[in-house]
C-alpha cells in the first residue's frame, strides 16, 4: 500500500492596510486611506511546502535539516514605491518602482534618513492569529508619491543557504531556456545543451575562453566576448561553432559582458565597462540590427566581470540587481552561496546562481496596489498600519 501525502489548501493570510496622515503642528488626522494586499506566490507555495518538509526531514540522525531555514523573513521590510502595474498574485515575485520610503519591522529607528521610517513597537503586537504592524514616518522621511506597498526580506536578499544544488551547473557562466531545452555556458569555454529533464544532449567547445554570455533569439545564438574586439558574434543554433561578427567593439573600448533580448521591445540590452575596478557599468540598448538606441550608466557595480544579463517578467537582471522598465533597481542577492552571489539565469520558477545553486523566485512577501497614488509632504507625518489576519491552526 502506498501512502500519499495530500497537502491541504492553504488559506493565505489576509492583509488589511490603513494609511493615515497627521498635521505636523496640530497632530490632527487629516486623511485616512484603506486597502488590501495580496500574498506572493513564493510565500503561499514555496515557503509553505518547505515547512511541510521540515516535519518529515528535520533533526533526523541521518543528516536531516530544516529546509525552511533557506528562506529569510519575507515581511522584514515594508517599502513604498512608485510601481503602478496591475496586481498579479500568481506571477509577481520581485519589487519594482522607485523607492519612496521604507521601514524595518524588526526594530525601531530614530535617525535622519530621508527614506526610513520606524516600527512602532508600542502600538504593534503579534498573536498566533493576528500580526498588527504599525510603522511611523516623520516629516523628513518618505516624502514623495507612491503607488505600491511591498513587504520583502531585508535588502531583498531572499535565501541564506541552499538545498537546491545542481552539480552539473557548477562552473556555469550563463544559462538560458529555449524551446524546452536548457543551454548552459560553462567556464572556460563550453556550451552544453540539455533536454527538458536535464539529460545532456550535446556539448560544444567554443574554443574562446573570453566568451562571457549568450542569448538566443529564434534560431540564432548571440555571444559576447569580455574583450574590446569581436564584442558580439552570432551563430545558427544548428551549428553554434560557426560564428560571424555582429559588432566589432563598443565606444571607449568598453568590454562587453552580458547580453539579453527584450522581446516586448524587440531590443537587445548589453552590459559593458571599461577595464579596471573603478569603472561603472554601462547598459546599452540596441535594435535587432545592433544599431545603438541609448546608453545608460548604472548606479551600481564596477568592473567588467559582473555576470550575465537576463530578462524575465519585464525585469532585466544584472549581477544581483533587478532593473525595471524605468531603470529603478532593487538588490536580490542570495546570501551564503557562490563566490559572488551572481545570478546567472532563470529556469522555470527558479534562479541559477554561481556555484551551481538554484533558488525559487521568492523576492517579495506581498504587495498592495493603492487605488490611486498617494503623496506625502514634509508638513505631515504618516502612519501605516498592517493587520495580517492568519488562518486558525485548529478548526
Question: What this model shows, in words?
Answer:
By secondary structure, this protein is mainly beta. The chain has one helix at 41-57, and strands at residues 14-23, 29-36, 38-39, 77-81, 99-104, 118-119, 125-127, 130-137, 144-152, 172-178, 181-186, 190-194, 200-205, 211-217, 220-225, 232-236, 244-247, 255-262, 267-273, 280-286, 292-302, 309-312, 315-318, 321-323, 329-331, 343-347, 350-353, 357-360, 366-376, 380-389. It folds into 2 domains: 14-158 and 365-389, no CATH class; 167-360, Neuraminidase, CATH 2.120.10.30. The protein is built from 1 helix and 30 strands. The strands form 7 sheets. Strands 1, 2, 6, 7, 8 and 30 form a 6-stranded antiparallel beta sheet that branches. Mean pLDDT is 85; it is low at 156-163.
Distance between the termini: 30 Å
**Number of helices in the DSSP assignment:** 1
Give the low-confidence spans: 156-163
Mean pLDDT metric: 85
CATH superfamily of the largest domain: TolB, C-terminal domain
Largest pleated sheet: 6 strands, antiparallel
Number of extended strands = 30
CATH architectural type of the largest domain: 6 Propeller
Shape: globular
Q: Helical amount among residues, as a percent range?
A: under 10%
Query: What value does the Rg take, in angstroms?
Result: 23 Å
**Class from helix and strand fractions:** mainly beta
CATH topology of the largest domain: Neuraminidase
Q: Can you tell me the CATH class of the largest domain? A: Mainly Beta
Total of domains: 2
Q: Strand fraction band?
A: over 45%
